Amino acid sequence: MGYHYHEIFKHVATKVHALIGFQDEETDALYLNMIKNLSPGNDYTFQQMMMEYLTEFQVKRFFFYHRYLWCHNGFHAKKSGDTLIVTEVNADTRLVVGDSIMKMSQDDIKVLNTRYAKLLYYDDDLSQDWSHIIEKQSQMTVLRGDQTYEFDVQQFMQLPDNSVKQYNGYKVVTIYNFDEHVAYDHNCPVILDLRYARGITPQTYQADVILISAQTKGSAEFFIQHSGIKTVGERSFGAANRFETLIFDNFVFVYGLDKEGEVIPDEWINDEAEHDFILDRAKSIVLS
User: Fold this and answer.
1) Residue 58 confidence (pLDDT) above 70
2) CA-to-CA distance for 101 and 78, rounded, in angstroms?
3) Is the pTM of this model over 0.85?
4) Residue 287's pLDDT is what?
5) Given this model, what pLDDT does residue 273 score?
6) pLDDT of residue 1 exceeding 60
7) So what's the pLDDT on residue 38?
8) Residue 52: is its pLDDT beyond 90?
9) Rg of the chain on CA atoms, in Å
10) Which of 202, 286, 253, 283 is nearest to 8 (CA)?
């Protein structure tokens, strides 16, 4: 017989208390009561409740997920004013870089920003990661030029493949899943793109320039922090750490062993949807 939801919660809460050095008894009681009233077979709802519980502490080194319910939406977007601007498309090819997402599930982005402020860690626009909020949505209203489109939000179970691409005089290594190592020769200048990398497995790469963004998470941040390699882009998510896991059936609690930290790039260039100035700058560095 596996774990009941409330048993998993108690184990996680105990570990959280030990890591942060205090217990919020009122918050624990509130979530424990809700979880005890959650009927079996609601794994997705339980996962979402645990994620919300962990953000109560505003500590970015805690993650909780279901191994077979984890998904991504096939694109990345960043908040700009009252819209989300698509900055990268890797699976949902209905979208193009530069699209403006005006609404999701019929709610304005401004409304969603207020509703999910805690899940966004009350960060400013440049530092917000909307990926887990987009996962909650069913529909989005997209403005492209002067045309408006309505799309259902898609979900993809597998992260995009990591890649190595050779160009004239340099190569670009793009990592989405930091848990899967990529081998390549460092026989020419290497740009290591970790802007959308996430994972908990320690890895080491050789490169001449690393690209980072607010969606660079976890062990990727920790690697960058200790690599000594020049960085270009935006400051990272803020969960740089060494990680361990607690596994309960199909649920995984991931926690950093040390105080979390973000990586500040050597050259700060904001990601622009219309043109990839971050990559352009990296090319100019390795080809100079």
Assistant:
1) yes
2) 10
3) yes
4) 96
5) 67
6) no
7) 95
8) yes
9) 20
10) 253
The amino acid at residue 85 is I
Residue-wise pLDDT tens digits, 219-254: 999 999 999 999 999 999 999 999 999 999 999 999
Which of 119, 8, 4 lies closest to 57 in space, CA to CA?
Answer: 119
Structure tokens at 131: 């990926």
Per residue, the 3-state secondary structure of the chain, as one string, reads CCCCHHHHHHHHHHHHHHHHCCCCHHHHHHHHHHHHCCCCCCHHHHHHHHHHHHHCCCCCCEEEEECCCCCECCEEEEEECCEEEEEEECCCCCCCCCCEEEEECCEEHHHHHHHCCCCCCCCCHHHCCCHHHHCCCCEEEEEECCEEEEEECCCECCCCCCEEEEECCEEEEECCECCCCCCCCCCCCEEEECCCCECCCCCCCCCCEEEECCCCCCHHHHHHHHHCCEEEECCCCCCCCCEEEEEECCEEEEEECCCCCCCCCCEECCCCCCCCHHHHHHHHHHHC
| pLDDT score for 271 | 75
For the record, the structure tokens of 13 come out as 């809460």
CA–CA separation, 167 and 148 (whole Å): 36
- Name 1's Cβ contacts closer than 8 Å, sequence gap at least 6: none
